[in-house]
Amino acid sequence: xxxxxxxxxxxxxxxxxxxxxxxxxxxxxxxxxxxxxxxxxxxxxxxxxxxxxxxxxxxxxxxxxxxxxxxxxxxxxxxxxxxxxxxxxxxxxxxxxxxxxxxxxxxxxxxxxxxxxxxxxxxxxxxxxxxxxxxxxxxxxxxxxxxxxxxxxxxxxxxxxxxxxxxxxxxxxxxxxxxxxxxxxxxxxxxxxxxxxxxxxxxxxxxxxxxxxxxxxxxxxxxxxxxxxxxxxxxxxxxxxxxxxxxxxxxxxxxxxxxxxxxxxxxxxxxxxxxxxxxxxxxxxxxxxxxxxxxxxxxxxxxxxxxxxxxxxxxxxxxxxxxxxxxxxxxxxxxxxxxxxxxxxxxxxxxxxxxxxxxxxxxxxxxxxxxxxxxxxxxxxxxxxxxxxxxxxxxxxxx
Length: 399
Prior knowledge:
Blueprint: H1 4-20, H2 30-34, H3 38-45, E1 53-55, E2 83-85, E3 90-97, E4 100-103, E5 106-109, E6 114-117, H4 141-145, E7 149-150, E8 161-162, H5 166-170, H6 174-178, H7 193-201, E9 207-209, E10 235-237, H8 261-265, H9 269-272, H10 277-280, H11 296-300, H12 316-320, H13 331-335, E11 338-343, E12 346-349, H14 358-364, H15 369-373, H16 379-387, H17 394-397
Antiparallel strand pairs: 1-2, 2-3, 3-4, 3-5, 5-6, 7-8, 9-10, 11-12
Helix pairs in contact: 14-16
């Protein structure tokens, strides 16, 4: 007969062995994460990340488009909509046919409160030749759903969770939920700056998988990528040749369209110096625009204060030549102009942080921030004004 001590030791030994066994990593969904991270989860639930796709059947109030009067672009009924996509600049509408989703042929321009046709032009995205022109013949699975969900399976076309849930950035969470440890979950804050930025760039970029087609279809998102890995192992950013204006780029390499923050950012000095996306943004949600960690100039001046070697030299108004507190004295006005198209004349901000000169506009037709604000003025006027700025090189302005 074994002694109590022997039996106790056996149980401890078996428990230790069980704890040491690796737990298979599976995706479990954000609600499981909420059990331990309730505060973060509640903030995240209110973000656009958590509400990119919304169930229009369960919540018809999420539909922003005006169906009260006829519009030639709208060939469907409000009742046909299964999911809405987007709510800030535009809203598109998804229906299901078979085991795939499709985008209906009209979208709502939120800023202008008007309908616009939804169609992808010939010669636009690289994948256009691989799919029919009719959006109802072009499934969202290979072109959209991988970034609007967690764990999209290219073969079963099933997801663990719609929207950008916890595991989209932290990786599969089953092992961590079973035995919470910092060693069995990805925390982008503990990654090197390249892999940390890759977590965001996986969806905020234009590119294509290195292997295509996959499972018989052409995909427009990085199939197989997991947080903590190197994105460049599976994903190529959209190519660009200097001097060419394309659907995706201006001649200097600045992005031409939305969802290219990553393409911009990797060309920036900020990226080269090790800055990461979440230096400025907190996707768990904040009270500030674009989920910034601090409001407006306060954020930029943490690193670019008057005493910093990163500049600017002197006071902010001396640097911008605009009154403090004015729109022209906002850092983003000059260094992140709204020049990247999302719908109609609605543009989003560039992320190269480079100042685009009036000379660049004249030579290469890249919009510059001076005349974007001073709409009644010319490039020649802007160039003349800059000549008198003592803190600006005349040579630089000629480029």
